[in-house]
Structures are given as C-alpha cells and as structure tokens.
Amino acid sequence: MRSSISVAIPVHNGLPFLQAALQSVFNQTLLPDEIIVVENKSTDGTFEYLRDLSHPLVRIVVQDELVSAPENWSRAAQETRGDFVKLLCADDIIQPQALELQSRKILDHQNVVLVAGRRTIIDERDNVIIQSRGLAGLRGVRSREEIMKVAAVSGTNIVGEVGGILFDGDALRDCLPWPKDYGYVTDLVQYERVLRNGNAYFMGDTVARFRTSPQSWSSTIQNRQTDDFNRLIDEWVTEGLALSRFERTRSRLASRANQLSRQALYASMPIFQRVRSLTN
Known about the structure:
The chain contains ten helices and ten strands. Helix 5 (144-154) packs across helix 10 and helix 9 packs antiparallel against helix 10. Strands 1, 2, 3, 4, 5, 6, 7, 8, 9 and 10 form a ten-stranded mixed beta sheet that branches. It is globular. The protein is α/β, with parallel strands linked by helices.
C-alpha cells in the first residue's frame, strides 16, 4: 500500500507569498494526500484568501486565538495524519520533485526518520541570493550523534530550514510540542529530538527555496542566534555530546562568524535588489 504524505503550512500574515507556497505543493510530481493550513489570526487578508480557496486536498484549521510561532508549528504537525510529513513555511517553496524524491529515500532506507535536501536562498522578489546550500557536505545515512557534532563545530544548523525536510510522521508527532524557548535554533532542537527515533538521510538534490528578507522572522531573531546556539551546544555537552576544548572553542567562533555573515547578508539585500532592478 502506498505511504501517505501530509504537507502542513502554519501561517500568520502569509500574503503575498502563501499562494506561491501552495502552488508549489499543487505542482508536485507526487501529490500529497492532504495539505493542512493552520491560520494564526492573520490581519493581512490571509484568512479571507483561505476562506475562498477551493481545493480538494486543502484543509484549513483556524486558531481560536493568536499563538506563538512554535505553538502554531505544533498545531500544524499535530493535525497531520500522513506516514510522511513536510512542514512548509508560508513564504517558502518546494521544488516539483521534492515529495517524490524524499519519500523514496525514507522507503529505501531502514530506520530513516528524517530526509534533508539542499535549499536555495531567495529574497522577497524571488531573486536568488545563494544557490543550493546546506548539509555541510554530508551525504547518505547519518546518525544523530554525527549530525550534532558536525553542527556544533560548524556553528550552525547544518540540516537547514523545515521546508527542506521530510519527516517520518510518527517520529515527528511523538516529539511535539515544537520547542518554544530556543529562538534561532528551534528547528535544530526539534530535529535532534526526532533523530532519537532513527537516522537522517542527507541528499544532494535541491528540494526547497527558502525566502528571506530584512522583515522575516529569521531576520528579526538574528541578534539572539549566537546566544541561542551556544546555549544549545552547552546543553548537548551536558547531556553527553563529546567535544574537545578545541572543538568547543571552534564552535563558539563559528557561531559568531555565522551571525556576522547573516547580518551582512541582510544589510546588503536592499543594495542587491537595487542593482538587480537597474540591470533588469
């Protein structure tokens, strides 16, 4: 029997990008069995857009009151029923073969509970900022412990944003609620919890387009990212992650360097967009 697939999109003020996110799901070479959109008290017309949306795969869930982003992510994941689950930010896009390629990897590899692909970074005008990034050069089946250590010494979430991930549905739902107190590294915390149930598979294909802008949630929490990351690594070390003193120092330096590079990226985006507009 064919495995079922759920796509869940938590959204708060998702216009104008929600339409593109949904269309990217509608365009999949392997369609999901359900698409769940959890509407979190938007004020920009998102609710009205969803109310008027008619598609046989789409189910709309409306929050009774405004909740935090992690709480909305938890509700979205809880609403899924599929064997496999993809969570998608309302302003991101998945490539046409994402569900087909990633579900095949879970089916082909025993004890894999998370499949991660590479992603392209775009701005709010769909301009490509960084092409095909992520996964720190790792490929194939990887253990939780290896991923934790590579992430630590790299100073960043090497697995990437959730749009590039396909989860085993039971493994994801067993690890809810989504962590609330980790800011920038909340996704990495959740991945580590899921991977207590099995391994990850890292694939070289680019499966998602992650949208960023100076106004995005990722941008607004960037100033906390070094503290959030270092706090998480301290917790992992306390729980048994083996890092030498040199590796711990390298981790702290790398996390700071990554924060500075992101700040430079966000600061340069208006200039990049201006130059692009003049050359088009």
